[in-house]
Design a protein that fits this description.
13 helices; 19 strands; 19% strand; rod-shaped
Amino acid sequence: MTAPPDVWKIASVADAARARAAVDRIATDGGAPTLDRVRFLTALTSRLRHCVGQGGEWELRLQVRQSAPGEAVRLELSLTPSGDGEPGPRDETPALICSLAHPPLSTGRRVPAPLSQALLGADENTAAVLRLLDEQENLVRLHREELHHTNQGVLALHADLEAAARAQRELLEAERTARTAAERARRLLTFLGDASAAITSSLSHTAILRRLSDMLVPEYAERLDVWLFDEEEYEEHDEHPRPVGEHSAAAVAAARTGRPQHAAAHPGGLPGVDDLPPSALSPERPLLAIPLVAQRLLGVLTLTAPGPRFDEDTSMMLIELGRRVGVALDHAHRYQQSRNTAEALQRAQLTELPTPPGLLLAARYLPATWGMNIGGDWYDAFLQPDGSLLAVIGDVTGHGLHAAVVMGQLRTALRAYAVENATPGEILTRLHRMLGHLQPDLYATALIARFRPGEPEVVWASAGHPPAVARAADGTVRVLDAKPGVMLGIPLPYVYRDHRADLPLGSSLVLYTDGLVERRGQGIDPGIGRLCRALEALGTPELEQDLDAAADALLKPLLYDSERDDDVCLLLCHTVATAERPRQADPSPADPRGSEPPDSPPAHGSVKESRREGGFRESV
């Protein structure tokens, strides 16, 4: 729906003002929004000013248009020269349009308002615009304040986020540092445990120091030096004595004060460690001197740092390891003293073999190469008043000094009982009663063989001892496996029986202890079989010409390994005609030990090395 246009003639400023006022009233009546209306009127004023400036008469056409009921209403306005039939440049300006909320209430030609009223109406529009501007300024101010607060909040949020991120990084770094420290502590504790187990598993000071060097160099120390105050005593049993070297001032201070010492150009600040100037023996690298203490001060362990300094945790671990090394060395020292005492007592009670007519004798005693398994094994050979010879082999249960003492008591008692010309069985019966009375918690095995000059037999009795092995002149070997009696000292009454075995001239009888034939996990029977084969391999001339060499030849296949956890006793007896008896080399009375069996495997560390390593033999 389109209303007929309103037309105003514009020829002067007054006409333009009245026309503007009329258009303002129509737009206001149509409910045009204030800003749209002001913009519309401002554009109209500009055109009217232009038309008045051009001069002449102009027509202002105003028309309300609505395409259909319910659709948008607009107010269209155009200015054209009056009476201008042909459009020219001045009517090319597009029409002005203002949207209305609804059609104006009044229709028909509007009567222009007086000029004064038009001016007042213009001021009202200006006041409306100013009010809108004030409202917009208030809104802008509120928006600015809100934006400022928002910015402040964003900045605070960024600061909080940055602080949280920094705290998170610090926590992660602290966790990483703690994890690294915990892992390092775990590694040091693991090493300390492994090293302690390694050094305490040995009772040899040489092995302890060698293992210590292998574990510490080069990761924890560039090199190490061990200064033992009883070095002469240790070197007595050392296969390669070390030359006496110089000791650093830090080691001397540690020996004097009993406190760990740190020598470097700069203080180490290690807990419980004294700082000293750099050592002349190591001016470039720090030294850490650790006292080796057990019940007394044993020596000083001096370590040269693998790098520019000693780490605090590592130093504490090394100091603790040094304490454990001191305890291990003290145990090794005490063990060696006990071993040497037991061995000395054992050897003091071994018999110098007699040389009866018609009988050759050779004996060997080899102590255990490791552990305290020394003492308790013995051999003996002596003449009875009737001229017969008793050959004895025995083994007391247990080891060490106590076993050696009991062995001496049995040996003495056995000789005393033999003075009455008692048989082997009678002697063992008396020993059984005596041991049960004197040592109720200790037992022993023994085998006694009696040889009478000119008789081609041997009488023997056994108290739970491994069976003797006999070799005939033709090389036939047999085991005297008659059932033995019970062990000596078993808490029950027992009478031992005598047994007889043929032993013509040229025959041999081997008495031994279980250390010769028994091996862990194998039992005793395979060892007896090896002994029989070794005895069978010997020739009669070899036995009669050099019985000592024959004894060594028996040991060779049975002691093929140098490690023994038990003593070994061997007594070899060989019968010969009285006129055929060869002359044997007499052993030294002061030292009944013979030479090493030819080509035999050495005892632990070799026979002629330290007594500590246990490589002795008796050759008599």
